[in-house]
Design brief:
Number of helices: 0
Helix content: under 10%
Strand content: over 45%
Structural class: mainly beta
Largest sheet: 7 strands, mixed
Number of strands: 11
Shape: globular
C-alpha cells in the first residue's frame, strides 16, 4: 500500500520560514512534486524534482523562496520555504508525478500538512 506522510507545517509570521517533509512508503520515490490547496481554491502545483535530484521546477510565485530537495535513501522529499507570505497559506501535499512535462500528479494523496502565514 502506497502512503505519503507530510509533516512540518505550522503557524508562522510573514517573512518566516518552514521546512516540510514527505515520507513515502510502499513505493520508491520517482519524479516528485509538492502541491498546495488554499481555502476555497483548487489544488495547485508548487514545485517538482526529478528522480535523480538534478532538475527542479517551481511555479513563478515561489521561485527564489522555496527549495525542493530529496533523500532517496530515506525515501523522503522536502520543501524548504523562506520569506513566507500570507498567500502561501494552504494545506501542502506531496505526490509522485505521472508526467514531468505537465507535472500531473499520481493518484496517491496523503493527509497534507497545514501552513498558515500570518500578516
Amino acid at each position: 500500500q502506497v502512503q505519503l506522510a507530510e509533516s512540518g507545517g505550522g503557524l508562522v509570521q510573514a517573512g518566516g520560514s518552514l521546512s516540510l517533509s514527505c515520507a513515502a512508503s510502499g513505493r520508491s520515490l520517482s519524479n516528485m512534486g509538492w502541491f498546495r490547496q488554499a481555502p476555497g481554491k483548487e489544488r495547485e502545483f508548487v514545485a517538482a524534482i526529478m528522480w535523480h535530484g538534478r532538475n527542479t521546477y517551481y511555479v513563478d510565485s515561489v521561485k527564489g523562496r522555496f527549495t525542493i530537495s530529496r533523500d532517496n535513501g530515506k525515501n523522503t522529499v522536502y520543501l524548504t520555504m523562506h520569506s513566507l507570505k500570507p498567500e502561501d497559506t494552504a494545506v501542502y501535499y506531496c505526490n509522485f508525478l505521472s508526467d514531468w512535462g505537465t507535472k500531473k500528479p499520481d493518484d496517491y494523496w496523503g493527509q497534507g500538512t497545514q501552513v498558515i502565514v500570518s500578516s
